[in-house]
Amino acid sequence: MTPKSQQSEHLPTKEQVRSFIDESETPVGKREIARAFNIKGADRIYLKKILKELIDEGHLEKGRKQELAPAGALPSVAVIEVDRIDKDGEAIARPVSWQEDGKPPVIYVLQPGRTQAPGVRDRLLARLARQKDGTYEARVIRRLEPSVGPTLGVYTKIGKDGRVQPTNRKLKKEIVVREENSMGAQSGEVVLCDILPGKTYALPEGRVTQRVGPMGDAASLSLIAIHAHGIPDEFDKAAIKEALAAKPVSLGKRTDLRGLPLLTIDPADARDRDDAVWAAPDDDPKNKGGWQAIVAIADVAHYVTHGSALDKAAKERGNSVYFPDRVVPMLPHELSSDLCSLHENVDRPVMAVQMWFDSEGNKLRHKFMRGLIRSIASLTYRQAQDAHEGKTDDKTEMLATEVIEPLFGAYAALKKARTKRQPLDLDLPERRIEFGVDGFIKAVHKRERFEAHMLVEEFMIQANVSAAETLVKMKQPCMFRVHEPPTTDKMIGLQETLADMNIRYAKGQVVTTETFNRILAQADNDIDRELVSSLVLRSQSQAVYSPDNLHHFGLHLQNYAHFTSPIRRYADLMVHRSLISALKLGDGGLKDEEAFEFREIGTQISATERRAMVAERETTDRFTAVFLANKVGEIFQAKVSGVTRAGLFLSLDDSGADALAPISTLGNDFFNFDPEKHMLVGKRTGRVFRLADRLAVRLREVDIVTGSMIVEIEDGRDGGSTPVRRPDPNRKMRGGTKPPARKPVKKKKRTLPKGKKWARRRQETS
Questions:
Q1: β-strands 658-662, 647-652 pairing
Q2: Any idea which UniProt keywords this protein has (predicted)?
Q3: The pTM is what?
């Protein structure tokens, strides 16, 4: 509510301000709003407050230049792509970068004078004006040149020549490759080809520049994602030269931590080891039952300094990208897998934080240091868990009592504080690809999750919190990991979805992580819990990197920054540099000019992180599709994860693979789509398909190029669809009366038009 003291007759209401912004053709700034309503002086505080309220309520969004627009609105200038030409010859376009849920608004491209009219797939830089009906008009600023880079695709031989089907789903046209330009490629091979200059209205011609390998080979599947998303996978000579020149670090002024039994705990297929842990009971008599712990992180800042070739390469990548068969590292192998990796029994430089906790897991204090460690062991999560449960092997037998058990003891205390804090507790199992000796996929599993995983995660979270708290306290630049609460619109959509699954959530309540955990607790079984976790995840805001401390909603933490993985995340490296400068821990700290780049870098590395996530997911889908390609015709148990007009999206229980059951495969019926209840209802049979239904499906089609799968519903479904109860014609209505009898509809006799009657008669008499 706006204070009464700030309201006066000449000031606009919140609704008036919102209407002004909604009706504006382009995004507007505070200055334009103040000028429109003649708001001056101290009254600007009132304007700032109601604008903040509109943003918090999800009605407005801030643009790149602090411009305000209705939620989901497009910027005043954007890159658009012509999608189609309508029957009147008008070009209809869509925005190239659209991050919102749902379909983007329609953009009508105005005829650009005497210049050539835009065609389908043309990219244009245009000035956009929003219309009252929610559509946009675009005035072309300039036509953008089409991409002329190499195209990755699957080659198919047709006669002497061939065709290349691009792996990028956005590229609809196949590429014609003449025999002399094919490099001898065979059908089914993944190839790189350059587009040859020529007319664009026909199929483009190309020249094969590289034969990657057969489609379905692991190397080919990863390369598809690398190329499709423009992920840099090679380092320039300058960066390689710096990496090769790097040397091991001596103790010098560092704190010697080599006497402590620090060890690393990682997945069995880990490519790098950037964190080591140690814990022991606190020997302070004032902290009875308390614990102390050290988290030691590879000191990447020692090797990668601001402005160096390595720094430029790492900043461009933003993060490492992990595929089932390989990693595209942020740093060259010489650093990421060697000098910055905390291998056992070798000296390695670290940035370390020592933390003290009470018996309830509350952090009492912490301190940072630059040290030198020698990890005593590199364990897998399975090894650490087995040792904790008394099943030791040759490596863990000597470590179980004095090293591993104190870690679990400290975690037991931290778990108490975590439970009290109530972070978002999602159940989202990962898929793991298992390869055979021949390099091809042997199986697809869901990754096992142990208490050892949660131990390491909680230690890392506490180290990240300590880093953020230190930089906040010392008023130093920090790259925060920000996760804002979900918007009102997304919560309304989630509530409607959950209601159809008989999961209760009251509208209007203050949304907290505990709210979501109560929702998750209502899931009946593990499969339902995975689905609900997925739905809750979709309702969340995207976590980003920012120099503004907007807190972390999901973890329920006020101060949070990534500190624990500088080998694979550039954000962590920036936090290390800021800590080094703030605490005067030697060379490799933050430069003054770098501090001014935090906002721009935060935007960039948030984008590279999203790019990596999409590429990794698509590649996992392709690997899974290759594995299931040999199982076409088999029956699988599945869960409905989405309902649309086009059909059902399903998640297969065993592999977690996603598949589509087109509406044409659901039965000989016409299905009505109910978007509010997430249901498809058969008009003739009354069959209902709804979200969370368990179904038996037959795998019908697998496309390993795109990673997509088509299934059809088996008639012997596992309680999936339910018939709609049709109204009883004899049922009494309220008041004891029967419903009025329906009048029989008299069918009209079907007749042919006059011309066709004459033609039929003539044919019969001839």
A1: antiparallel
A2: Cytoplasm, Exonuclease, Hydrolase, Nuclease, RNA-binding
A3: 0.72
